[in-house]
Amino acid sequence: MSRVYNFSAGPAVLPEEVLKEAANEMLDYKGTGMSVMEMSHRSKAFEEIITEAEKDIRDLMNIPDNYKVLFLQGGASQQFAMIPMNLMKNKVADYIITGQWAKKAYKEAQKYGKVNAIASSEDKTFSYIPDCSDLPISEDADYVYICENNTIYGTKYKTLPNTKGKTLVADVSSCFLSEPVDVTKYGIIYGGVQKNVGPAGVVIVIIREDLITEDVLPGTPTMLQYKTHADAKSLYNTPPAYGIYICGKVFKWLKAQGGLAAMKEKNEKKAKILYDFLDESKLFKGTVVKEDRSLMNVPFVTGDEELDAKFVKEAKEAGFENLKGHRTVGGMRASIYNAMPIEGVEKLVEFMRKFEVANTK
Ligand SMILES: *Cc1c(COP(=O)(O)O)cnc(C)c1O
User: Fold this and answer.
1) Could you tell me the pTM of the whole model?
2) Ligand 1, atom 3: nearest CA belongs to which residue?
3) For a pLDDT cut of 70, what percent of the chain falls above it?
C-alpha cells in the first residue's frame, strides 16, 4: 500500500488514523456485528455516534447553547437556497462577492428576494478581500452573506465584515475547524465537510436558535426548513449516517491534536513554508495579496501555461497529487487542509525547488 500526498481542494485528504480506525470497525462496529453503513439511524449505536459528534464539535468550536448544530445533506450548494428561504423575512439580503462560491450563493438568493452585491473583488479576479469596515449595508437586510475562505482563489477574511448589527451568514466549507472561531459573531456558520472535515455528503449548519422559525418563504419544502431538522435533532429522515460517523472521528482526532488553537498553529506553520518559498522563488509566484492569503488553499503560477502543465505532470509522477489549479483559474493550487502532514508541504517545496533549478536558465 502506498499513499500519495493529496493536495486536492475537495473531496480531500483525511487523517490516516481516522481512516485506519474506520477500516478496523468496517465489519463489526463495537460488537454490533455490522458496519455503521448497515445500521438503523434510530439504533442505540448510531444515536451515540451522532450525539457524541455533536458534543465534540460543540467542545471544539466552543458553540454556545443558543446555537443548534445540524447535520444535513445537499452539500454546501443546497444552503445557497435554504438560507434565503428560511431567513428572508423582508426579502432583502446583502452579499459580498469574493469568488465563485459567493457568486453562486448570490445568484441563487436572487430567486427569493432583492439581493444586493455590496462589495466585490471580481475586478482583480478575486485575488483579495475587499475592505468591509464600512459597507453600504441595507437597512432592511435580513442578513449579510460571506464566503469566508475562497477555495478556488485562495483568499480568506482576516477580519469579519462590519455588518452594522445585521446577522452574518458564512460559508466556511474550506476553513471549517482550521482555527478557533467566535461563533457568537455569526447567525449561521455552515460548510460542506468534504474539504476539511469528512467525506462528501454531509453539510454542517451551526445556526442561532432565533433564526429557526416557521416563518419561512411560502412553498419552502419541509426538508429545506431548518426547523424540521432542528426539532428532529438531524434525524427527521435518514441522515448521511456513515459520513457523520467519520466526521465524529475527525472531531476526536482534532481534540487529540490539541483542539483548534493547536490546529491554527500547525496550519500557520505549514502555510508559511509554502508562502515563504513562493515569496523567494524566481519561478513560482502566489496569486493572492499577502494580507488575505488563505491557510488552506494556496494558488500559484509560473506565468507560463506549458511550464505549469509540466510541473503538474512531474509533481504527480513524484507522488504529489491534485496540484492542478481550478479549471477557471489555471496554474496550480495546493490545498493544505488540517490532515495534510507538515512533511507533505516540506517535500512539495523541496520538489518545487528542484523543478525551479531544472527549469530556469
Ligand atoms: C466546495 C465548496 C462549495 C460547494 O460544496 P458542495 O458541497 O459541492 O455543494 C461551496 N462553498 C465553498 C467555499 C466550497 O469550497
Assistant:
1) 0.98
2) 76
3) 100
